[in-house]
Amino acid sequence: MNIDMEKIAESTWAEVPFVVFDLETTGFGREDRIIELGAVVMVGNRVTEQFHSLVNPCRTIPEDSIKVHGITEDMVKDAPKFRDVARGFFNFLFCGLPIVSHNLPFDTRMLAQQIDPSRWPAGIFTLCTMDQARKAGHKGKAKLADLADHYNLEYEHEHAALSDSVVAGLLARRFARSYIVSQYYTKTTDEWAAGYLNR
To answer: For the segment 18-30, what is each residue's pLDDT rounded down to a tens digit?
Structure first.
C-alpha cells in the first residue's frame, strides 16, 4: 500500500482510509492479557482488509470476563500465543494509516503490557471514538453498543474484536468527518512509550 502521509495529514477524517483495531482481554489489570485481536482497514464505510486472531493468554480467563466476550479457555487453548501473532498484527496496525480505537488508552496499555512500546513508531495520527463520543455529549463510558443503537449502526456481535472495530470505524467517520486529520486527532501516539514507561 502506497501511503502519502502529507496528503493524509491535510485530508479530512471523512476522506482518509484508516486502520481500526480492538482487543478482548482476560481483564483490565497489569497481569491481564489479550485473548482476541481484531483490526480492519476502512475506506469510506467499507472494510477492505482485516486481521483477526484468537490468542492463548497462558493464564486463566475469569468467569466475569467470559460473561462479557464469551471467549472461554477451551476456545483459546490451541490458539497462538501473542508473541506468535504480534509481528503480523503490528505490521497491519502500523502500516502508516491513521489508527482508530474505541478507548484507545486502554487498548494501547494492554498492547504495551506485552510488547515494549518504545519499539512502536511515533507520529501516527490516532482517534479515540470513546473520547469523540463524550465530546459529542454522550455520557459515562459511551459504550459501543449504546452508540451503535443511538446512530442506527449495524452491529454484528458485541464484544467481538472485528465487529467492534467496524462500529468504531463508522463512529469515527461520523464524529470527526469534517475535521482535518493533522489538526484534529487524539494526541497519544507520540507519548505511548513515555506514558507507559513512566508509570
So the answer is: 999 999 999 999 8
Neighbours of 131 (CB within 10 A): 17
What the chain holds in terms of domains, given with CATH numbers, is: 5-197 (3.30.420.10)
Q: What average pLDDT does the chain have?
A: 90
Angstrom distance (rounded) from CA 91 to CA 156: 26
Interatomic CA distance for residues 40 and 9, integer angstroms: 20
Beta strand pairing call for 18-25 and 99-101: parallel
The H or E element containing residue 19 is strand 18-25
CA angle 146, 110, 162 (to 5 degrees): 45
> What whole-number distance in Å separates Cα of residue 95 and Cα of residue 93?
6
Using pLDDT thresholds of 50, 70 and 90, give the confidence band for residue 188: low
CB 45 within 8 A of CB 174: no
Grid cell, residue 49, equals 482488509
Q: Compute the distance between CA of residue 149 and CA of residue 61 in angstroms, rounded to an integer.
A: 29
Residue found under cell 507520540: 190
Q: What is the DSSP letter of 80?
A: P
